[in-house]
């Protein structure tokens, strides 16, 4: 009974917070994309019902404090600024103040889930319902299904070694080469079309995590990676190829290490996000039931190896009541992560929540 309650709670958190139901859309043709038009200000869209009911509305442009709302991902760009993907929209911290670019540029009112800086220094933002935005430092350009994207619900973005951009959507995977979108769906071997994470390992292999399992690109189709008993992994939320060549991934089956032949379960608890810092330490977000002392941010120290791994290898850095989301490291070595109540910075000793008081 307790196990069923735990699983129900995890599903409620994961899917309730995204606020949408997975949709399997028809695969978009591999067509050449036309130049998307400049972003239409939100003011002109009010009567078109272009609104995400889970978007947290406000009118702030510049504030001294961070948005006190769900922050799904964090990124420090090459210029040192920290960008946030939030339920308030796109927010940028310049070290002094937070600027809401969704309000400043009049972007569509949709939750922002993921973000990436590409090799050309353009920024990309994936939303739940409004597709993808590209920001070149002065203008935002909106890419949607009209331009060939598989779905307008985008959970993850990855740039491969060749400079192609990969978008994980609720309609499959979209690969963008700067001109065209090529879409992959369950018809191409994906376990299902609700994609949570995409990564490229040291060998160049593309891995995809989805609700239905884990798979990798083999030519022009995907092949599944299954458990030793042949069953698929369940609700894989994040993939982390390590510098060592190992693959770690987390989800409903816990935290799994894959060395190319053998699976090792490192944690049995639900794992949402993974990150490897410059020192080789692995940061993990663990999610349990409300009030559980296990929920929070963990670190696996690089010097904890060699095997065997045990729970003693993992140190809980922060206990929270709900979730820890996207994790990143800044140039000073601070660890940033998102939570239900906003963004936090950890300097190795204390936590900065960017709140009043």
Key features?
disordered N terminus; five-stranded antiparallel beta sheet; 29 strands; 41% strand; globular; 357 residues; mainly beta; 6% helix
As a percent range, the share of strand residues is 35-45%
**How do the strands of the widest beta sheet line up side by side?**
1-5-4-3-2
The largest β sheet comes out as: 5 strands, antiparallel
Shape: globular
Number of distinct helices? 2
The N- and C-terminal alpha carbons lie at a distance of: 43 Å
Helix content: under 10%
Work out the radius of gyration.
19 Å
Quick structural overview:
6% of the residues lie in helices and 41% in strands.
What would you note in describing this structure?
- The protein is mainly beta.
- The chain has 2 helices and 29 strands.
- It has helices at about 1-20, 100-105, and strands spanning about 60-65, 70-75, 80-85, 90-95, 100, 110-115, 125, 130-135, 140-145, 155-160, 165-170, 170-175, 180-185, 195-200, 205-210, 215-220, 220-225, 235-240, 245-250, 255-260, 265, 270-275, 280-285, 295-300, 315-320, 325-330, 335-340, 340-345, 350.
- The strands form 7 sheets. Strands 1-5-4-3-2 form a 5-stranded antiparallel sheet. A 4-stranded antiparallel sheet has the order 6-7-8-9, with no helix packed on it.
- β20 and β21 form a beta hairpin.
- It is globular.
- It starts with a helix and ends in a 5-residue tail after the last strand.
């Amino acid at each position: 009974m307790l196990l069923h309650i735990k699983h129900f709670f995890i599903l409620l958190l994961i899917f309730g917070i995204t606020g949408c139901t997975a949709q399997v859309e028809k695969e978009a043709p591999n067509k050449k994309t036309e130049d998307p038009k400049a972003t239409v200000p939100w003011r002109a869209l009010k009567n078109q019902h272009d609104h995400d009911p889970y978007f947290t509305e406000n009118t702030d442009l510049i504030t001294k404090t961070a948005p006190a709302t769900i922050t799904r991902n964090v990124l420090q760009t090459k210029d040192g600024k920290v960008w946030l993907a939030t339920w308030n929209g796109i927010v940028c911290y310049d070290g002094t103040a937070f600027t809401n670019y969704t309000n400043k540029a009049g972007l569509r009112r949709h939750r922002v889930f993921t973000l990436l800086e590409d090799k050309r220094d353009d920024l990309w933002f994936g939303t739940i319902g409004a597709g993808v935005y590209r920001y070149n430092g002065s203008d935002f350009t909106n890419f949607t299904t009209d331009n060939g994207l598989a779905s307008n619900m985008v959970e993850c973005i990855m740039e491969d070694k060749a400079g192609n951009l990969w978008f994980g959507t609720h309609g499959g995977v979209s690969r963008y080469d700067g001109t065209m979108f090529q879409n992959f769906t369950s018809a191409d071997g994906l376990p299902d079309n609700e994609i949570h994470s995409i990564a490229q390992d040291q060998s160049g292999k593309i891995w995809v995590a989805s609700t239905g399992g884990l798979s990798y690109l083999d030519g022009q189709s995907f092949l599944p990676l299954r458990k030793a008993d042949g069953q698929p992994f369940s609700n894989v939320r994040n993939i982390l190829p390590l510098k060592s060549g190992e693959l770690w991934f987390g989800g409903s089956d816990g935290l799994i290490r894959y060395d190319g032949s053998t699976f090792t379960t490192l944690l049995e608890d639900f794992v949402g996000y993974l990150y490897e810092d410059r020192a080789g330490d692995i940061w993990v977000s663990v999610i349990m039931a409300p009030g559980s002392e296990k929920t929070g941010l963990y670190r696996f120290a690089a010097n904890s190896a060699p095997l065997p791994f045990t729970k003693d290898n993992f140190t809980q850095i922060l206990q929270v009541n709900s979730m820890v989301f996207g994790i990143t490291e800044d140039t000073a070595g601070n660890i940033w992560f998102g939570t239900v109540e906003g963004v936090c910075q950890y300097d190795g000793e204390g936590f900065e929540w960017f709140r009043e008081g």
